[in-house]
Amino acid sequence: LANPDYTEPVDKGHKEGMKTFGEVNKGQQDLANGVLGMLEVIKSDFANLEADTKASEESASQAYENFLVESKKSRAMKNKKVELNEADRTAAEAKMQQDTMDLKSTKDEAAAAERYYKELEPQCLDQGMTFNERAAARKAEIDSLKDALEILRE
Q1: How far is CA 109 from CA 27, 75, 97, 115, in A?
Q2: Distance CA 108, CA 113 (A)
Q3: Model confidence over 41-63: pLDDT tens digits?
Q4: What's the predicted TM-score (pTM) here?
Q5: How far is the C-alpha of 149 from the C-alpha of 62, rounded, in Å?
Q6: Which residues does 60 contact at the CB level (< 8 Å), separation at least 6?
Q7: Distance of CA 27 to CAs 33, 57, 77, 111, Å?
């Protein structure tokens, strides 16, 4: 004992016929057929646990491999999409630049045409003469040209 001066009786464990707080648990020794049988049960339980663990690890490893493959595919697809979007953006910017230059050129042409129109407008518009007056002026001009031709022929 730890205390050499202890004089009370020492409990040496459960004795046959002593009162307990419920049923006495005798374990599965009878089913295990002794220590070797118990070791067989433990070995069997360990083998089952090992098999379950290996199957679980294999399943998790396969799921991880599948995840990696899917992730690589997804990443490759997304990188390709980014690449294509970048190409589209570059093409759109180039087209916008070309269209902007075309618009500026067209505006310049329209402005030049407008200036030329303003130059021609006074010449083409009615000078205040009626149709009959213009016809008479034209007839007079033709008559004077015929007279000039007659003089030149003589």
Answers
A1: 106, 50, 18, 10
A2: 9
A3: 888 889 899 999 999 999 999 99
A4: 0.42
A5: 111
A6: none
A7: 12, 33, 61, 108
